[in-house]
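INFO batch 0412 | record 1 of 1 | parsing
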Amino acid sequence: MTCNPLAQQLVEKASAAGAVVATAESCTGGLVAGAITDVAGSSAVLDCGLVTYSNAAKQKLLGVPNELLTQFGAVSREVAEAMVQGLLQQSAAQIGVAITGIAGPDGGTEAKPVGLVWFAWGQKNQAVQVACERFEGDRAAVRAEAVDYALNRLLDSVNTVK
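INFO prediction complete | emitting tokens
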């Protein structure tokens, strides 16, 4: 099996920094955590990977307020930020990433088209960062791009661990 090179770098750098990471995933369905666990030695750096596909799971496992889901929808800046904040509070990780989006082929709207993915990432007890990307292609392509983007954000966070 060939490991994702970004995941390989993440495991190496997180291990060297003594950092522990976690993921909260919706549209990627655990693919980020899966990419990390494909790498030998990942058990030293991955605390957990939560697949919170439903709104109920986002609320129960990550503490995302129902008001945010109702007002902004699951695919939103506000929900991505709440997801990573809940992840960092609930896990033993110092660094986390959250992903929520519309992978397709259905489910898109004019305001939230297929390929729209929100990310939030950062370190425990620090301000988190949030970004939105629009990926092209079919469901597999959108999810693959989202995985690489998330791994890059985790790498960015590991590089700033003190």
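INFO post-check: Residues 5-159 form a domain with the Maf protein fold (CATH 3.90.950.20).
INFO record closed
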